[in-house]
């Protein structure tokens, strides 16, 4: 409120630029980032009220996601101007079971928006989580046979290879003799 009074006295209104890259002063970028964070927190508090109605809740959720995207742009601008890297040290997102959510950069749902029709089904699909196997579990059933080290133990492969080797050797020798004209000399 005191900021509004100060702006009214001086007649200047410091509006946030449309693009974060238009601002080249680090303190102003920090100020605009904090403004966005305040707006996000106000809208997150508003969206907790399930009695707002489906359309208002969807609009608020869209506005919050837009502000989060804008905040990310300001954080990128701050780091490019030599300021702190907020995204590197930011809080991690966790799902309902307490597991860290990988790749949490997409569209998010807040408050009452999580209970909207269509959104609930999205969260139910995500809960069907199949844990990935680690390296030891993957390698547990792999033995020498997997790499082909025991292929010749059954007695089938060696005779086939000997036959193919003999045919290739005879073909190669005849081609070499033709090339060097040695076949005529033998006769």
From TrEMBL:
Principal cellular location given in the protein's record: nucleus
Alphabetical list of Pfam families matching this protein: Isy1
InterPro entries, per the entry: Helix_hairpin_bin_sf, Isy1, Isy1_sf
Record bears the keyword Amino-acid biosynthesis: no
Subcellular location: Nucleus
Protein's UniProt keywords contain rRNA-binding: no
Keywords carried by this UniProt record: Nucleus
Any one Gene Ontology BP term: generation of catalytic spliceosome for second transesterification step
GO cellular component: nucleus
Sequence similarity: Belongs to the ISY1 family.
Protein's name according to its UniProt entry: Pre-mRNA-splicing factor ISY1
Species annotation: Megaselia scalaris (Humpbacked fly)
